[in-house]
Design brief:
By secondary structure, this protein is mainly alpha-helical. It is built from 5 helices and 3 strands. A hairpin with a 5-residue loop joins strand 2 (36-37) and strand 3 (43-46). It is elongated.
């Protein structure tokens, strides 16, 4: 049987996790966390929810979408506090996504550093130059910063 001290008010849980109370209500509305209600109909969060809230925050900061987080958390056991093994399974679900994100960030760091730092001011030698908007055929967004390689300039036609 859970003791009264095992539960936190919404303000206590929010403060412990560094989020606003409205964030906890939003997470609860989305089904990411749950609470019980006391006799006065006030939310009470079991202390085990602190880990879940913290995982949600970290996952969001790493760029995971709420849909990805929801999908992963839905795989955790219902009715009991997740074990270390449960959390390790969740971690494996996100590993490839996080590795891809790390590679994207490293690529962006390298390209931005060389682009901003080179000072070439030459559209002919700049790796990000996009003659005639050729990169548009590859999709939206900054294609070269997202990892596409610029195509070499076409050779001029002989006269």
């Amino acid at each position: 049987m859970a003791r009264k001290s095992d539960y936190l008010t919404i303000g206590q849980a929010a403060s412990r996790c560094g989020v606003a109370a409205s964030t906890l209500r939003f997470y609860e509305q989305r089904g990411l966390i749950r609470s019980i209600r006391n006799a006065g109909n006030q939310r009470r969060y079991h202390r085990s929810m602190l880990r879940r809230i913290s995982v949600i925050r970290v996952a969001q900061r790493l760029g995971l979408t709420l849909a990805e987080i929801e999908d992963a958390l839905a795989r955790l056991p219902d009715g009991r506090t997740p074990t270390r093994r449960d959390w390790e399974r969740l971690s494996r679900l996100w590993r490839r996504r996080l590795d891809d994100r790390i590679a994207q960030l490293e690529n962006l760091r390298e390209k931005l550093a060389s682009c901003i730092g080179c000072g070439c001011l030459s559209l002919k030698s700049c790796a990000l130059y996009n003659t005639g908007d050729r990169a548009a055929g590859r999709g939206s967004g900054p294609r070269y910063l997202l990892g596409d390689s610029p195509e070499p300039e076409p050779e001029p036609e002989p006269e």
